[in-house]
Amino acid sequence: MKDTTFRTDLFAPTHMGALQLANRIVMAPITRSRYGEDGVPNALHATYYAQRASAGLIVAEATNISPQGRGYAATPGLWSDAQVAGWKQVTDAVHAAGGKIVSQLWHVGRFSSVALQPGGQAPVAPSAIKAEGDTYTADGFVPVSMPRALETDEIPGIVAQFELAARNAQRAGFDGVEVHAANSYLLDQFLRDSTNHRTDGYGGSIKNRARLTLEVTEAVVNLWGSDRVGIRLSPVTPDAGNTPPDSNVMATYGYLITQLNRFNLAYLHFVEGATATTRSVPEGVDLDALSATFNGAFIGNNNYDLEMAISRRAEGRIDAVAFGRLFISNPDLVERLRRGTQLTIAPRESYYGGGAKGYTDWPTATE
What are the residue numbers of the active site? Predict the structure, then answer.
């Protein structure tokens, strides 16, 4: 075993906005599909997150902001009082263990099924363009449904859904919130001209396509203060829905990040490449150039190992590094990385569904 602390400051305390962190190792949001249809967290989820509280920051799994925002069964929500009370159990447990946790606010947009939508309605999207693939419902996997385009006068209601969830995150005791504008979900669908064919003030030009993400961010900042709000972007990932990238990634996301700088956000959380698969990017795209235009703290995410994190931190490319899958089976991941202890690799079948098995039964290195 070898202590790596002398080689890097990844294990030293830092801050992102008002968030005082014990280290620069972030637990990425990981959907684990262990909720009832009511989306209410319970003691099992509190145990899971508290076990991982040695992360400098936990970004809780993507959390539905409304019944309309749901695209998968067995995922949590943050629109009801019962959900708020459930999340309060989680945040209390994390804080008792010395950790920090933020809520990731999620609307899936087109990647949903009528089986998951209130009243069996069509999912909503910027434009009526169907995603590819299947999604998980209470009755198993089904193809995603054809969405309908949001009317212009419905869009303030989308912002209001984010506002409600952000306010509920305060009530639930979170340390901050992360706006989920990544992974080809609703806000990302508005950003990309592959999924946004609108002709109103939310479509066409880059400025118009970025409008909703900026309106949502502003609404959340007005509630929380800029120093407790982060945002997640993924300029080139195709999933969910095998979604094509924007026709001009550098211009679109360059404009968005420049505009986001107005808010002095706590951090930018960036998927570098295609989520959970590859770090390769299309020709003409330079993600480091994009992230360098952001004025605040930058969290790098996607297929990192410790050596890559140390190297990119030393180059000034990242301020912190997010790990997802490694936190599944290594609740003490920070300490294992620091000491060079062998990591446990979770089998894929443990990722989703079930109860405590494969969820809260992973031992620490000392156990």
Answer: 185
